[in-house]
Description:
Layout: E1 6-7, E2 10-11, H1 19-26, E3 37-38, E4 41-42, E5 57-69, E6 72-88, E7 91-102, E8 107-110, E9 114-124, E10 129-138, E11 153-163, E12 177-188, E13 196-205, H2 207-214, E14 226-237, E15 240-253, E16 256-265, E17 275-283, H3 284-287
Antiparallel strand pairs: 1-2, 3-4, 5-6, 5-17, 6-7, 7-8, 7-9, 9-10, 10-11, 11-12, 12-13, 13-14, 14-15, 15-16, 16-17
Keywords: Signal
Signal peptide: 1-34
Amino acid sequence: MLTQTTRSGTPLRAASLAAAAAGALLCAPSPVSAHAIAGNRIFPSTMAVDDPGVGDEANLQFGHQRVPGDNGDQSINTFDFEYDKLITPRLAVSVDGTYAMQNNPRARGFDNFGVGLKYLLYVNDAHEFMTSIGVDAELGGTGSRAIADNFSTISPTVYAGKGMGDLPDSLAYLRPLAITGEAGPALTTGAGQPNAFNYGFTVQYSLPYLQQHVRDVGLPQPFANLIPLVEIPLSRSQGQTTGTVNPGFIWINRYGQFGVEAQVPINRASGSHVGILVQAHIFFDDVAPATIGKPLFQ
């Protein structure tokens, strides 16, 4: 589960940089596995729009963006962490937090901490389809007064993913394509605070899928494990839509992944400059399946 932190209706698009973890991923073997699997399809853990699977995993991200503020543009750096734990093979709980640094006005500290619950509802292996439902809660008053709101936000969400592996032979080179998406309201508990509707989707082209299930075109490392993608996270509140278009890539192997994306604002209300997301992600259900990555109940 991946959460999106908002403040005063403006998405912060958080992310996390962990150089040591990223280095460990790049040195790991190349065979690919992961927690979100439907048939031959592996849905990676994307950075701004959550994937449709559940798993035992940890996510670290760094994000930088310039967004409109009360006194002009403000620069925001965010450092995110999230830990997901499988209760059963289909049910996971999560905890997450964000440390934010901003100027204009200058402030730093933790945003409100969050908790989540996500259930894998349905998987169709033959058609590479997967869907989940979940709810996330940002707990008001748990963060720094300089950064966090004093009210909570509850976000029930539906997630889905579809791979194109069932296309006919005439369209074989489109089989590595996949689309994922999420949608749900963000309901605030503060009097007079606006609600929002958050939604988004990703378009991915998996080079590991191309190599393993369409044709081995002889791609060398690290390209053989790359998934180029575009994420489009959006939010609508008080009659206005904000969001970004995020082109980038994810490098994935059996034990984790490393990703980088640009964040291109869709309008002035969404930001004034291109931002960046950097991710390091570990699959505990593959790193330590018999211990820390094992569901509490089978």
